[in-house]
Design goal:
Among the domains are: 7-103, OB fold (Dihydrolipoamide Acetyltransferase, E2P) (Beta Barrel), CATH 2.40.50; 126-262, 3-Layer(aba) Sandwich (Rossmann fold), CATH 3.40.50; 269-298; 400-438, no CATH class. Helix 5 packs parallel to helix 9 (253-260) and helix 6 (178-192) packs parallel to helix 7. It starts with 6 loop residues before the first helix and ends in a 7-residue tail after the last strand. The strands form 3 sheets. Strands 1-2-3-5-4 form a 5-stranded mixed β-barrel. It is of the alpha/beta class. It has helices at residues 7-20, 22-25, 61-64, 106-120, 148-160, 178-192, 216-224, 241-245, 253-260, 264-297, 300-303, 305-347, 350-393, 395-400; strands at residues 27-38, 44-49, 54-59, 76-86, 91-101, 138-143, 165-170, 197-202, 229-233, 248-249, 405-407, 425-429, 434-438. The radius of gyration is 58 Å and the shape is flat.
């Protein structure tokens, strides 16, 4: 029996053989993903297949957290990992260390996946975007404090609109921690609640250098911001997720500064034109009012005020008389209307209606008693007639005249000779007694 191995021992032996094979320690593999499952603990399980074979694969959370895209069933990928045996099932599988899309870059795929997801969730909707204030007093700039972009922004704002206060909110704009730091800076600026507008961005660079502005955490911070945000990332040809979510996209940081504030010279020119227009309007108004005043001064009222006053007093007396007459006419009409309403009210007074109803009730009560008395007499007469008929038909009355009724032993009325036999017991019912008899003989009549 010693030559037999256990399944566990055999599996361990095979696993060790695979683990020490240098060709299986670094395997480059390409294929199609199927049966993909992202476990709640972060690990990814899948099957990698081609037209003729398949292999189970696992990518632990420590490795897949650096993925720039989300694996999906049907996706063709390039994999680097090592081959080993999962002892519990005795199944060999590849443990993935790195994975890339087969055909185009992972960053491009991640960008398109996040763009589609955020678009479906409404992050790019125009209904959510806020208006950029025309004359901001306080401007926040979320960027690196040492980059060229911040200098361009500050220089442009100071040149165009020097009355605005500028505050730089420092943030990492490059590297693996850039996304979280940009989101932190945006939320911190909202907590301060001191800014009219935020400029979020950095200078140009490669897609990897700009990637912090393509992360979901930054998109969520921009979407949740109560402060309007201008996105200014890279050059005009660079497009990031932040550009889609922001309230306004600028092609460059300098362009963001120009969009954030007006030109002081344009404002002064506009104010000058408005001042001249207002001055002209005031001059025209004064000229018109002066002409009107002169016409009034030349009028009859200013030259002969006493005559005008006497005339107005007479007119007031006439109007007073007309007012009194009109008032009296209205009062007379209203009094007449009140009298009519009073008469109508008296005609429908409840006491009158109650008396009328009382008389009607007395009359109806009398008619009811007469009708009941007449109907009662009719019913009594009908009852007496029925009693007389019943008396005539009552068998007891017949028996009082000398007749009787004979019953068989079973209690049936004896009607014919066949209902009884000789020696049968019978009962004879007369008017005041019952006679128990026996049949001695039956003679046919």
């Amino acid at each position: 029996m010693e030559k037999y191995l256990t399944v566990t021992a055999l599996t361990k032996y095979i696993k060790r053989k695979l683990d020490i094979d240098p060709h299986l320690r670094s395997v480059w593999l390409k294929g199609e993903i199927s049966n993909f499952k992202h476990h709640s603990r972060g690990h990814m399980y899948m099957t990698i297949k081609d037209d003729h074979a398949r292999i189970q694969a696992v990518m632990f959370a420590g490795n897949n957290r650096y993925l720039k895209f989300i694996p999906e069933n049907g996706m063709h990928v390039l994999i680097h990992g090592d081959i080993s045996v999962f002892e519990a099932s005795g199944q060999y599988q590849i443990y993935i260390q790195r994975m890339e899309p087969d055909g185009f870059g992972s960053l491009y795929l991640a960008f398109e996946q996040l763009k589609t997801s955020l678009s479906q969730r409404g992050f790019f909707s125009n209904d959510h975007k806020q208006e950029i204030p025309a004359f901001p007093n306080r401007i926040g700039v979320v960027t690196s404090p040492t980059g060229a972009a911040v200098r361009d922004i500050i220089t442009t704002i100071k040149r165009r609109y020097p009355v605005a206060a500028i505050t730089v909110v420092p943030a990492l704009v490059q590297g693996v921690h850039a996304g979280n730091d940009i989101a932190r800076a945006i939320r911190f600026a909202n907590q301060l609640n001191q800014f009219d507008v935020l400029i979020v961005g950095r200078g140009g660079g490669s897609i990897e250098e700009l990637w912090g502005f393509n992360e979901q955490v930054v998109a969520e911070a921009i979407y949740e911001s109560r402060i309007p945000i201008i996105s200014a990332v890279g050059h005009e040809t660079d497009v990031t997720i932040s550009d889609y979510v922001a309230d306004l996209r600028a092609p460059t940081p300098t362009g963001a500064a120009e969009l954030a504030v007006p030109s002081i010279y344009e404002v002064l020119g506009t104010l000058g034109a408005m001042k001249r227009s207002m001055q002209q309007s005031m001059d025209n108004l004064l000229t018109s009012e002066n002409r009107h005043l002169k016409r009034l001064m030349r009028s009859y009222a200013f030259r002969y005020p006493e005559q005008l006053l006497r005339q107005k007093e007479q007119e007031m007396d006439k109007l007073s008389e007309r007012f009194k007459k009109s008032t009296q006419t209205i009062l007379d009409k209203q009094s007449e209307k009140v009298a009519q309403l009073k008469n109508r009210l008296l005609s429908v007074h409840p006491a009158k209606q109650i008396n009328q109803a009382s008389r009607e009730m007395t009359f109806l009560n009398k008619r009811l008693q007469q009708t009941m008395t007449r109907r009662l007499e009719q019913k009594k007469a009908a009852l007496h007639t029925l009693i007389e008929k019943l008396t005539v038909l009552n068998p007891l009355e017949t028996m009082r005249r000398g007749f009787s009724i004979t019953y068989t032993e079973k209690g049936n009325i004896l009607k014919a000779k066949n209902d009884v036999a000789k020696n049968d017991r019978i009962t004879v019912k007369i008017s005041d007694a019952r006679l128990d008899c026996r049949v001695l003989d039956i003679r046919e009549d």
